[in-house]
Specification:
There is one protein chain. Helix content is about 35%, strand content about 20%. A hairpin with a 2-residue loop joins strand 2 and strand 3.
């Protein structure tokens, strides 16, 4: 048994505990409460000094296999650039021959950076299984093979991959994935009880394409595919389109949700769908801001992701919290911290993480704090903190 003591313990699922302690046994939380109550129960007491004990963070959306193209995430896109400018740059960069070992090394480095940032679990979306990180001792990775194919022949090819891949899968987006393929990926996820991630309503160009069949995405797709005679625009937004395809439920994770209406938020709430916000990526690509306050008002519990280093200069989830607070000053800081912890655990179906409770995973963080702030959650979401894993104190 180890008894970790700190001036403040933040369980997330209950009120913070001053002069608190967390008792751990064999990698699990055995108890938490005031230090005066728990001090005699641990075989060893670890004093954390000027630190706050919190759950580890959960990154619900990353693309680690793109990490070798990080230079794209440091470029500036003008206010008049639509998202297809960035997509073209990404496809051009991916089309160049790159050593597979370089791709793996960059993905592994990105995963190490997630650990330094206090992330214990990430949902990683990749187009090739060989691009997934291979470093097992770092944050746990839930890998999803991403499938796309907008015209019927490409959809058929992706369906063939779906049949042979033994693992969880994701559909890319409504504007890049044939409806038959979206339904098939979701049906397979239901049968396997997997999470079903899909990029949803990320840009105004996507909304225009689905509503009218026009706009910059049509021009982009025609450049690549030729005539789009097979496509009939659904005449609605992305969420309503996914509702018509009957793929929205508690296991569906809609990523971004920037351009959604209140009616669509109501649909997400009615289906108990999950929503992942990526404020850093949205800001970089200048696609707008997700209506976080509206999502909360309808009882949804958004989680947070960073997307990739191609669309975000940083994979720091502390930074994502700060950006979300900047974009939504009226949003309660406690709700934002929940998005990076307990909400993420629920969205990915990994509720052994996300909060400090008896029986849960004991991989926790000590966040440096020279003096206790008046509003602990404002402090936690206000900056890019240096968080140390409690397990790193074991030898001290």
């Amino acid at each position: 048994m180890i008894c970790y003591r700190a001036p403040l313990v933040v369980p997330v699922s209950r009120a913070p505990i001053r002069d608190g302690a967390v008792l751990t046994v064999d990698g699990r939380i055995a108890a938490l409460g005031s230090f005066s109550r728990l001090r005699g129960q641990g075989s060893r007491i670890v004093e954390l000094g000027d630190s706050i004990i919190t759950p580890a963070l959960i990154n619900c959306h990353s693309h680690l296999e793109l990490s070798h193209l990080a230079e794209l995430g440091r470029k500036n896109y003008g206010p008049d650039d639509d998202i297809t400018v960035w997509i073209r740059a990404l496809l051009a960069a991916r089309g160049k021959e790159v050593d597979g070992e370089k791709i793996k090394a960059a993905a592994d480095l990105a995963l190490r950076r997630l650990r330094v940032g206090g992330v214990v679990l990430t949902a990683d979306i990749g187009n090739v299984e060989s691009g997934r990180p291979q470093v097992a001792e770092l944050p746990e990775v839930m890998f999803f093979l991403e499938l796309l194919g907008f015209n019927p022949p490409a959809a058929d090819e992706a369906l063939g991959r779906l049949e042979t891949f033994n693992g969880a899968c994701a559909a890319h987006a409504p504007y890049s994935t044939h409806p038959r393929l979206i339904r098939a990926v979701k049906a397979r996820a239901r049968a396997r009880r997997d999470i079903f991630p899909i990029h949803t309503a990320e840009s105004a160009a996507e909304t225009a394409f689905l509503a009218t069949g026009g706009g910059p995405l049509r021009l982009f797709l025609e450049e690549r595919l030729g005539r789009l005679d097979f496509f009939t625009p659904p005449g609605c937004g992305a969420v309503e389109y996914l509702e018509r395809l009957k793929v929205l439920d508690r296991q569906t994770l809609c990523v971004h949700c920037v351009h959604i209406t209140e009616t669509e938020v109501e649909i997400l709430a009615r289906r108990a769908a999950q929503v992942c916000l990526c404020p850093g990526s949205n800001r970089f690509l200048r696609v707008g801001r997700a209506p976080a306050d509206l999502l909360l008002r309808y009882g949804l519990r958004p989680c947070l992701g960073t997307d990739s280093l191609v669309s975000n200069p940083s994979l720091d989830l502390w930074r994502e919290m700060r950006l979300l607070q900047e974009d939504n000053p009226a949003l309660a800081p406690e709700e934002i911290f929940k998005m990076a912890t307990i909400n993420g655990a629920a969205a990915l179906g990994r509720e052994e993480f996300g909060s400090l409770e008896p029986g849960k995973d004991a991989r926790m963080l000590a966040v440096r704090c020279e003096r206790l702030p008046g509003d602990i959650f404002s402090f936690l979401v206000s900056g890019e903190h240096q968080a140390v894993w409690l397990e790193d104190y074991n030898g001290s």
